[in-house]
Design goal:
Residues 41-175 form the ATPase dynein-related AAA domain. The protein is α/β, with parallel strands linked by helices. 39% of the residues lie in helices and 16% in strands. It binds adenosine-5'-diphosphate.
Length: 273
């Protein structure tokens, strides 16, 4: 698997000048900074689309560290993170994976949805997440010592948990952990307005609707409307799309397939738009 052009979300480092917009919900920025200063690995828990990735991007830029983001999936192995020998122009050369690069460059490595990755990934993470802060690279014979600037951040969505896919307690307890959830309405209005450009007064009914949808009892949905989907919806509304249709394509169709469940959600949307 070729990391640099794979769909694993491996990104080029952020430059410190551009700090991605992030509106804090509590004191998570101070907590992140404290963890960074004391070289503590950080675990972010929370539903998809609630701002975890944006938070890490914001903090990395604030702290002036390059960020290496990896979206984990069930084929992701330790070698995808550490690196491998590849054939280049007839020669075999070692190519660092994103974790190794983050260590060499003193950056922040963010492993999104860590529980999706293969089990051998945790073996690599253990010596990095205690006071040794080392990464042994068996294939090259090196043992890298993480510099001060290196920080490991991982995330997972507790809503997806099952017995086969969960973080082992011996791995979890190596991290300090922050719980995320969808922002309170007054914060979410500001986020959606800022991200979409839709006027604030038009975002207010949308956020109220979202909270109504999130609170619907007896509706069988794996996931609820995320802040990300609200931003999409507001963008479509800002484009002049009929609000009902915008809500249908951004808030209903991405979340469910069953006609009856969709009807339940659409009924609530009709009451607003
Ligand atoms: P997650 O990583 O939790 O799945 P993201 O960080 O990708 O979610 O958030 C999805 C989108 O929601 C972001 O791209 C951004 O537009 C918006 N968002 C969510 N929370 C915030 C926040 N606190 N400040 C700014 N934007 C936010």
């Amino acid at each position: 698997m070729n990391i640099s052009c794979s769909p694993q979300g491996f990104q080029t480092p952020h430059s410190a000048e551009e700090v991605p917009f992030y509106l804090p919900v509590g004191n998570e920025c101070a907590l992140f900074e404290a963890a960074y200063r004391h070289r503590l690995p950080l675990l972010l828990k929370g539903p998809t689309g609630c701002g975890k990735t944006r938070f890490v991007a914001h903090m990395a830029a604030q702290l002036g560290r390059p960020l290496f983001t990896v979206s984990c999936h069930d084929d992701l192995t330790a070698a995808d993170l550490t690196g491998r020998y590849l054939l280049k122009g007839g020669e075999t050369v070692w190519v660092d994976g994103p974790l190794t690069r983050a260590i060499r460059e003193g950056g922040i490595c963010y492993l999104d949805e860590i529980v999706e990755a293969r089990k051998d990934v945790t073996v690599v993470l253990h010596p990095l997440t205690d006071d040794r802060r080392i990464l042994p690279l068996e294939r090259t014979g090196e043992t890298l010592k993480a510099p001060e600037g290196f920080m490991l951040v991982v995330s997972y969505n507790p809503g997806y948990q099952n017995i086969l896919k969960s973080l082992k307690p011996s791995t979890r307890q190596r991290f300090v952990a922050l719980s995320f959830d969808f922002p309170p309405p007054e914060v979410e209005v500001e986020i959606v307005a800022s991200e979409s450009g839709l006027p604030r007064e038009r975002c207010i009914p949308l956020i109220n609707l979202a909270n109504g949808l999130r609170g619907l009892k007896g509706v069988d949905l794996e996931e609820v409307v995320s802040t990300r989907l609200l931003v999409y919806c507001a963008i479509l509304m800002g484009e002049g799309l009929d609000p009902f249709q915008a809500a249908q394509v951004a808030l209903v169709e991405p979340l469910c397939d069953e006609t009856e469940v969709k009807e339940g959600l659409l009924e609530l949307i009709r009451a607003t738009y």
